[in-house]
């Protein structure tokens, strides 16, 4: 490996957590789930709010079942309490649109099941040995379960956004922010290390590994994500009516879906509004656009004379410092506090562009972490030397299946489930996720 690559892999790793800290992380993830669902009536927890999403009660029991599989059965050798749950809460056994028709646990049964599994997992944590077994090294399996539950909280937030009834979202936190003109910054050509290793990032998923060196040409990247105001220009200019701005597949989707603007937007007599958790409000021009699919992001970029970044370009802009050191976050290795990024549903929506200048990356790009997931041009594929761990269904089965990579996390993403190497993926037609984008152009 070259000097540049060896310097890159010296990025600070996540500190190894004690068992007490791991228990606190498990508790916090479960509390976040239960708190989010506490305001939803039981009959609404059982409903299928969209064929794209599971009933909320399924997500709750699925998180508990995942915890049972990995932290009770796998580590403690304990038999399953109820084998029928293995089928009901296997994400690959039934399509989301079918799950409401299954004999799922009731909300009260799901809460009791989750509490029982959680108590057993915490009791077993006291007895496990972290040495030797790759599953336990640096507490990896616990990190996997913690991140899994936080990811499902984001999924449940997407379900609540699709729900007709209002949800009592958290109190809006006021922000001091400076108006930010849409500008670009130059990312110089050169080598950088893409991905990470288990030694640098103990809780990294298999698809983030292995770290490998790439040489990239220079490019310009948008300083901030594309805003509602900027995207509205595309809408008002007839962007959805002209096929020349769209890929062949994108135009076919636009015609079949008959879309004319981002999801949850509505044209009013005096402007535009957007629906947020069941309530209509004036479209905020300074926020990053969200609820656009990959086809829409790609069409805007073409209209603007630019393109979407590859995920390698995105990661270089987000993580690589001029001295050849890879950063865990754009601003460095310090955990994501509110001064750096909008994460963890602090605002229940994106922050205005320019709200987090302290979170800028070395190249000067802002809000690369938090606010909205950012679509990239890249297909979801394995890195060189990829090895599935600890199970194929997390990543490998999705390779070469038409999924596009998203980077950076959204306002709904928990800080424990994001870093500059984290890879999310979804189909290019998906709009219910909290996704936006920024553009690049060749230098």
Topology of helices and strands:
Layout: H1 3-8, H2 19-38, H3 42-46, H4 56-76, H5 84-88, H6 107-125, H7 140-162, E1 184-187, E2 190-194, E3 212-216, E4 219-222, H8 228-236, H9 248-257, E5 265-268, E6 271-276, E7 279-282, H10 294-303, H11 311-319, E8 373-379, E9 404-407, E10 424-426, E11 435-436, E12 440-442
Parallel strand pairs: 8-11
Antiparallel strand pairs: 1-4, 2-3, 4-12, 5-6, 6-7, 8-9, 9-10
Can you offer a commentary on this structure?
With 443 residues, the chain is α+β, with helices and mostly antiparallel strands. It folds into two domains: 19-162, Four Helix Bundle (Hemerythrin (Met), subunit A) (Up-down Bundle); 173-443, paralog of FGE (formylglycine-generating enzyme), CATH 3.90.1580. 31% of the residues lie in helices and 12% in strands. The protein has helices at 3-8, 19-38, 42-46, 56-76, 84-88, 107-125, 140-162, 228-236, 248-257, 294-303, 311-319; strands at 184-187, 190-194, 212-216, 219-222, 265-268, 271-276, 279-282, 373-379, 404-407, 424-426, 435-436, 440-442. Strands 10-9-8-11 form a four-stranded mixed beta sheet. Strands 1-4-12 form a three-stranded antiparallel beta sheet, covered by helices on one side. Strands 5-6-7 form a three-stranded antiparallel beta sheet, with no helix packed on it. A hairpin with a 2-residue loop joins strand 6 and strand 7 (279-282). It is globular, with a radius of gyration of 22 Å.
């Amino acid at each position: 490996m070259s000097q540049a690559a060896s310097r890159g892999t010296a990025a600070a790793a996540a500190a190894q957590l004690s068992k007490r800290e791991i228990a606190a992380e498990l508790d916090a993830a479960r509390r976040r789930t239960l708190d989010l669902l506490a305001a939803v009536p039981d009959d609404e927890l059982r409903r299928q709010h969209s064929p794209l999403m599971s009933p909320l009660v399924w997500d709750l029991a699925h998180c508990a079942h995942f915890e049972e599989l990995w932290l009770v059965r796998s580590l403690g050798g304990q038999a399953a309490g109820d084998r029928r749950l293995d089928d009901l809460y296997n994400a690959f056994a039934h399509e989301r649109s079918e799950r409401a028709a299954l004999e799922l646990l009731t909300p009260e049964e799901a809460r009791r099941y989750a509490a029982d599994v959680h108590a057993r997992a915490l009791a077993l944590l006291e007895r496990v040995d972290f040495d030797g077994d790759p599953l336990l090294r640096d507490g990896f399996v616990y990190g996997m379960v913690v991140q899994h539950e936080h990811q499902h909280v984001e999924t449940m937030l997407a379900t609540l956004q699709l729900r007709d009834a209002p949800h009592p979202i958290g109190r809006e936190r006021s922000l001091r922010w400076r108006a930010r003109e849409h500008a670009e910054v130059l990312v110089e050509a050169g080598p950088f290390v893409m991905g990470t290793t288990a030694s640098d990032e103990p809780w990294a998923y298999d698809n983030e590994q292995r770290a490998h060196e790439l040489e990239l040409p220079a490019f310009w990247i948008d300083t901030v994500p594309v805003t509602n105001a900027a995207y509205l220009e595309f809408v008002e200019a007839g962007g959805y009516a002209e096929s020349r701005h769209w890929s062949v597949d994108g135009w076919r989707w636009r015609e079949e879906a008959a879309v004319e603007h981002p999801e949850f937007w509505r044209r009013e007599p005096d402007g535009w509004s957007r629906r947020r958790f069941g309530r209509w409000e004036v479209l905020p021009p300074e926020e990053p656009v969200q609820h656009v699919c990959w086809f829409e992001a790609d069409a805007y970029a073409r209209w603007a004379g630019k393109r979407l970044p590859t995920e390698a370009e995105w990661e270089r802009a987000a993580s690589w410092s001029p001295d050849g050191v890879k950063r865990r976050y754009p601003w460095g290795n310090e955990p994501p506090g509110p001064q750096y990024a909008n994460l963890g549903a602090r605002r229940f929506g994106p922050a205005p562009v320019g709200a987090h200048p302290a979170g800028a990356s070395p190249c000067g790009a802002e809000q690369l972490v938090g606010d909205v997931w950012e679509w990239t041009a890249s297909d979801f594929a394995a890195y060189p030397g990829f090895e599935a761990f600890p199970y194929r269904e997390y990543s490998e089965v999705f390779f070469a299946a038409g999924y596009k990579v998203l980077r950076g996390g959204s306002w709904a993403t928990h800080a424990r489930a994001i870093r500059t190497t984290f890879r999310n993926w979804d189909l290019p037609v998906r709009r219910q996720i909290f996704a936006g984008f920024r553009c690049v152009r060749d230098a």
